[in-house]
Amino acid sequence: MVAFSIRGDIDLSQVNVKTHVCLVLDVSGSMNVPGKYPYLLEAIPHVLGALFEDDWLSIVLFSSRSELVWSKDVASSQGREQEIVQRIDQSGVKF
């Protein structure tokens, strides 16, 4: 089961965005193989590149539990792809 909750440090009421894209990424044990997990990480810059600057991107990881690792507008996220990948890679939810 994946449970979601609202984080207290994120206030979307003052943000004027066109689209809010939420990626829910499987980082369970089945993804811990060379043909899967590296491609998940490689996709992050491509996803950011496909969105508009005023869109919002959230990334939730799930395995035996879930974790929100990113939630920012795309303009603030562009150029920070390595930071996003690090947050995914260092998550306690992964594998």
How would you summarize this macromolecular structure in one to three sentences?
The protein is of the alpha+beta class and 95 residues long.
How would you describe this structure to a colleague?
The protein is α+β, with helices and mostly antiparallel strands and 95 residues long. The protein is built from three helices and three strands; from the N terminus they run βαββαα. Strands 1-2-3 form a three-stranded mixed sheet. The mean pLDDT is 90.
How does the SSE layout of this entry go?
Blueprint: E1 20-26, H1 37-50, E2 56-62, E3 66-73, H2 74-77, H3 81-89
Parallel strand pairs: 1-2
Antiparallel strand pairs: 2-3
Helix pairs in contact: 1-3
Helix content: 25-40%
Shape: globular
Query: Biggest sheet, in brief?
Result: 3 strands, mixed
What is the β-strand count? 3
Strand content: 15-25%
- Derived from helix and strand composition plus strand pairing, the structural class reads alpha+beta
What are the segments in which pLDDT stays under 50 over at least 5 consecutive residues? none
**DSSP helical segment count:** 3
Radius of gyration: 13 Å
Distance between the termini: 16 Å
Order of helical and strand elements: EHEEHH
| Mean of all residue-level pLDDT scores | 90
Spatially, the strands of the biggest sheet line up as 1-2-3
